[in-house]
Write a structure and sequence with these properties.
CATH class: Alpha Beta
Strand content: 15-25%
Shape: globular
Low-confidence stretches: none
Strand order of the largest sheet: 6-7-8-3-9
Distance between the termini: 33 Å
Number of domains: 1
CATH superfamily: P-loop containing nucleotide triphosphate hydrolases
CATH topology: Rossmann fold
Radius of gyration: 17 Å
Number of helices: 8
Number of strands: 9
Length: about 220
């Protein structure tokens, strides 16, 4: 049974003609313990699809089902803060904070109950291959690969079932990309996370369990 399902999903912009869809008839299923890629050409609607999965936008038609519940009937703030973690291509870390402070801030926003947040944050950093010394550095003192590891650790701070990664290796060289993929594989296979990666990288697609290819609807 999938943790996340898209059932006959279609989307068009509010001011677009009724028959002008970005995409439609999307039926994808995602399971825990597996890594998925969503790929497609520019304009095919990958970012829009992520907005539907994360509840930032609503389907024009169809349903997004999380854990057998329609997102339309859920508290979406709670869903985004506890059930689903997001990793961005541009990291979206706060540069005025240290690495560990970024992770602790995510815990605070989610209101997750953790007795020792600093200890937990350090554990998460070690789990993605970062040291306590790196934890104390400001974000701009870290490399791109290190920042992306922090972003992954931050997304894990409230233990979500699903990790959504939007072009997470787009700014990284191939060796660093492979290191990030190893982290995602461990999270899927050892921690039973569902990992969904939007990507243009064939290297990423070759390394994961299933690829969904999104095509722009011909209207």
């Amino acid at each position: 049974m999938g943790i996340l399902k898209l059932e006959n999903v279609g989307y068009r912009y509010k001011d677009a003609p009724k028959d002008s869809y970005v995409f439609k008839d999307i039926n994808y299923e995602f399971e825990q313990g597996k890594i998925y890629a969503i790929k497609g050409k520019s304009g095919s609607g990958k970012t829009t699809l992520l907005s539907l999965i994360t509840g930032l936008e609503k389907c024009t038609v169809g349903k997004v089902i999380y854990d057998e519940k329609d997102l339309k009937n859920m508290n979406l703030d709670k869903y985004r803060n506890t059930d689903i973690g997001i990793v961005f291509q541009s990291y979206n870390l706060l540069p005025r904070l240290t690495a560990i402070e970024n992770i602790i801030l995510s815990m605070d926003v989610s209101k997750v109950k953790i007795k020792d947040k600093k200890k937990k944050a350090l554990e998460l950093m070690r789990s993605v291959g970062l040291s306590e010394e790196q934890a104390q550095r400001k974000i701009l003192k870290l490399s791109g690969g290190e920042q992306q590891r922090i972003a992954i650790a931050r997304s894990l701070s409230y233990n979500p079932k699903i990790i959504i990664a939007d072009e997470p290796t787009g700014n990284l060289d191939k060796d660093t990309e492979n290191e990030i993929l190893k982290i995602f594989r461990r999270l899927a296979k050892e921690e039973n996370k569902c990992i969904i990666i939007v990507t243009h990288s064939q290297n990423v697609c070759d390394a994961i369990d299933k690829v969904y290819e999104l095509s722009k609807t011909k209207n």
